[in-house]
Specification:
The protein is mainly α and 146 residues long. It contains five helices and no strands.
């Protein structure tokens, strides 16, 4: 009874604020406020408020919520443990199976389209030359004026 009265009071206050907003020629805001203020009365009329009040003051409902929380906690704990130990186990199984690739080797190669000749392999750069590694980056930056 108290919850229904409070919801009705909130709705009445919201409709009053909507009337003030409409008086100030803010019709869009007034419509939104009126829509929000009708929600509590709608919840009272559907019985959702009475169900929520009965649930909030029911000890068995709180025990049920506690059990659901405990089950969720156990579930998440097992997932964390599985990720920590299962990841290494999965890598060992893949290595023992021969490490077969799950993706085709040519899947990452760019498609060349019809009429273009296939490009040969790129020449290897000399290892240990740091200037060669950054020359491509410098050329791109100069091209964009940076």
């Amino acid at each position: 009874m108290l919850a229904e009265t409070m919801c009705s009071a909130v709705s009445a206050a919201g409709l009053g604020i909507a009337a003030v907003a409409a008086y100030r020629r803010r019709f869009l805001a007034a419509t939104r406020i009126a829509a929000y203020s009708l929600v509590p009365v709608g919840l009272v009329l559907t019985g959702a408020v009475q169900w929520a009040v009965d649930t909030a003051f029911s000890p068995s409902a709180w025990v049920g919520f506690g059990l659901l929380g405990g089950a969720w906690l156990l579930f998440m704990t097992t997932r964390i443990v599985e990720r920590r130990s299962g990841g290494a186990r999965g890598k060992r199984k893949a290595a023992a199976a021969g490490g077969a690739d799950t993706v085709a080797p040519a899947a990452s190669a760019p498609s060349l389209g019809a009429g273009r000749p296939a490009a040969g392999p790129r020449p290897q750069k000399a290892a240990g030359t740091g200037a060669d590694d950054f020359s491509d980056i410098e050329a791109i930056l100069k091209k964009h004026g940076i």
